[in-house]
């Protein structure tokens, strides 16, 4: 993941993230994380270069949260991404 558009939003807003190797076989889940609390998001669209998701109601507001993915396959890993979004109250 390399960028998010828009860079901020509130509960229910949709964010589009671009990057590489984002297809469903490689990225099975997406989360917003503050490093301690991981909140799964609802993915609404997913291709090899873009993932769109809705900010969940339970996401912590008033700060920047990083995106984290769960990879697919037998060696599944949680990987925090360099992209962050601001969650507005």
Explain the layout of strands and helices.
Layout: E1 3-5, E2 8-9, E3 14-18, E4 27-33, E5 38-40, E6 42-46, E7 50-54, E8 63-71, E9 78-87
Parallel strand pairs: 2-9
Antiparallel strand pairs: 1-3, 3-7, 4-5, 4-8, 6-7, 8-9
Write a structural description.
- The protein has 89 residues and is mainly beta.
- Helices cover 0% and strands 55% of the residues.
- It contains no helices and nine strands.
- Strands 2-9-8-4-5 form a five-stranded mixed beta sheet, with no helix packed on it. Strands 1-3-7-6 form a four-stranded antiparallel beta sheet, with no helix packed on it.
- The chain starts with a strand and ends with a strand.
- The relative contact order is 0.32.
- The mean pLDDT is 96.
List keywords for this structure.
single chain; 89 residues; mainly beta; Immunoglobulin-like; 5-stranded mixed sheet; 4-stranded antiparallel sheet; 9 strands; 0% helix; 55% strand
């Amino acid at each position: 993941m390399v960028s998010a558009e828009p860079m901020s939003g509130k509960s229910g807003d949709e964010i589009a993230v671009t990057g590489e190797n984002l297809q469903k076989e490689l990225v099975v889940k997406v989360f917003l994380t503050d490093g301690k609390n991981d909140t799964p998001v609802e993915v609404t669209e997913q291709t090899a270069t873009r993932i769109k998701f809705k900010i969940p109601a339970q996401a912590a507001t008033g700060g920047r949260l990083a995106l984290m993915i769960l990879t697919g396959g037998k060696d599944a890993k949680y990987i925090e991404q360099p992209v962050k979004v601001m969650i507005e109250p």
